[in-house]
Amino acid sequence: MKKAKQPNTYNGGCHCGAVRFQVTVDNYKVADCNCSICRKKGFLHLIVPPEQFTLLQGTEALITYTFNTRVAHHMFCRICGIHSFYRPRSHPDAFDVNVHCLDGDVLDQFQILPFDGANWEQNVHLIR
Question: In this protein, which residues make up the domain named CENP-V/GFA (predicted)?
Answer without folding.
Answer: 10-121
